[in-house]
Amino acid sequence: MGDQSTQSSAETLEFRDATKRYPGSAKAAVENLSLEVPAGEICVLVGPSGCGKTTAMRMVNRMIDMTSGDILLGGRSVKQRKPSELRRDIGYVIQQVGLFPHRSIADNIGTVPGLLGWDKARIGARVDELMELVGLDDELRNRYPAQLSGGQQQRVGVARALAADPSVMLMDEPFGAIDPINRDRLQDEFLRLQALVRKTIVFVTHDIDEAIKMGDRIAILREGGHLAQYGTPADILANPADEFVARFVGADRGLKRLSLTTLGELELPQPNGHRPVLRLPDTMSARDALSALLTDGGDGALVLQQDGEVHGIATIAVLGGLLSEGRPPAPAPAPAPATADPEDEA
Amino acid sequence: MIAAALAAAGPVIPDFGGGGASDRCVSENASFCMDWFRENWSDLFVPALREHVKLTVIAIVIGFAISTVLALLAHRLRWTEKPITVVTGILYTIPSLALFQLLVPITKLSLLTAEIALVSYTLLILFRNMLEGLRGVPADVRDAARGMGLTDRQVLWKVELPLALPAIVAGLRIATVTIISLATVAAFVVNEGLGRLIFAAIQSDVFKTELVAAGGLAVAMALFADAAFVLLQRRLTPWVRARAR
Predict the structure, then answer these.
(1) What does the pLDDT look like over A68-84, one tens digit per residue?
(2) What does the alpha-carbon distance between residue A210 and residue A175 come to, in Å, rounded to a whole number?
(3) Tens digits of per-residue pLDDT, A174-186?
(4) Of 3.30.70.890, 3.30.230.70, 1.10.3720.10, 2.60.40.1120, which CATH number belongs to B40-234?
(5) Is A144 in CB contact (< 8 Å) with chain B?
(6) Hey, are the CB atoms on B242 and A160 less than 8 Å from each other?
(7) Using CB atoms, which residue from B138, B163, B245 is nearest to A147?
(8) What residues are paired with A218 via a beta bridge?
(9) Is A144's CB within 8 Å of B242's CB?
(10) Ranges of each domain in chain B
(11) What is the pTM of this model?
């Protein structure tokens, strides 16, 4: 158990033919799910309702026990561990947050360290550290959850899940109940946080846009918990495995793919004396840039680096051209090796 | 019994006479004689009040213990809720005097008889309130608690019972006020409590001062107990009012 969130532990998580069948139900909720989440990566389980994504997630910390198959955490079967002890080693964040209404924010965050028997001073220091990490004002320490906004409550939920430095985090639609503007901000914040803590995360959502934004890898599930495709967002958008995946990621998957690339990552033509009025930062996504260009209606935009240097000229023609390519735009992560379909293992 | 009390109180009533303003008030059996009440406060009313508190506290403590066991049982095993509700409901419905009479042949005119009856009236109220309180814990809070690795026992003690406190205290308030009033009738079987003075007053040609004083003390005791529970709940559950801050 590290004291520093920045030097935290993470373990590889592996589903091996994990299956859940409820008695009296003909179809399995999750059937032979096999996939591996490398340590420190976010794996998003996404799919329509009834696809078994939440069931799959809850089998990891044994909130739901598997019927057959196995899940390995750091190479060790979760079935060999006592549920309560296993869960203390796994961060757990749910959509409704589920903070304890009768406990102060500090006590909520210190729940798992308390269960693990840390002494008071250590818990207090850890709570301070986490509140700062997730961006909660220190004056909220002694408030009760009902006195916080929805966004603040979700931050407390994340801090509480990180408290004992778990090796894995499970997040079930953590931002689902937050309004769109704050959701976007929380997502960005969480990605920054994840860059620091590098947890292995299983993230459940029904929203493909959220999956593309949050996931290092996306597992698309279809009804009955069948894995339709597992791969990086770029890979899935460029090469949907079948009709179901193509429909699920949407007809605008080309546009979505553009959202994975920033202007700075593209090789753009140089201005050659042509000076468009519209200026865009090179940190903007190609999708937002295309949108800006379409709205502007002009003849292109000057893309500026952060130091003010000109990166190149973006035009509707250039960005639109990326749409028709059957592969991800230029320097995006190479798809081929990362595509290795874990289903092949079975 | 009244004779003993009167003897202790000095020359005041035996023949409703004897001289002094208070004695005149008493001999005319006015609606309330303050002087007589004052003179008899420590010898007559304080012991009766103490007995009444004792009758009530015993009934509430035992009733609370039994109801807690029943509520936890119904919380764990859903099917037990129905039978428990039916039995405690029947006990609650039997008129108090009838229940006393039913018990007397078995347990005689004793404190036990009185307490059995009083306890049986607390069960339904306390059981239902505690069960509702436990069931009222939001599902997401329970899910998060289990998901963080609290054992079933820890979920009960650290989450469910604390969150059920407002409902539990609400049940205690109702039950206590009910028992304070019912305990006056308990003097029918056991010569204790404020009911003892009320019966005595009725037997002495309806001695109004004693009747009004004993009844008034029972009302005051109920109000006091109710207020005490309200304060207790505020102390125990600061989070309930935190929203308004």
Answers:
(1) 999 999 999 999 999 99
(2) 9
(3) 998 888 888 888 8
(4) 1.10.3720.10
(5) yes
(6) no
(7) B245
(8) A44, A231
(9) yes
(10) 40-234
(11) 0.79
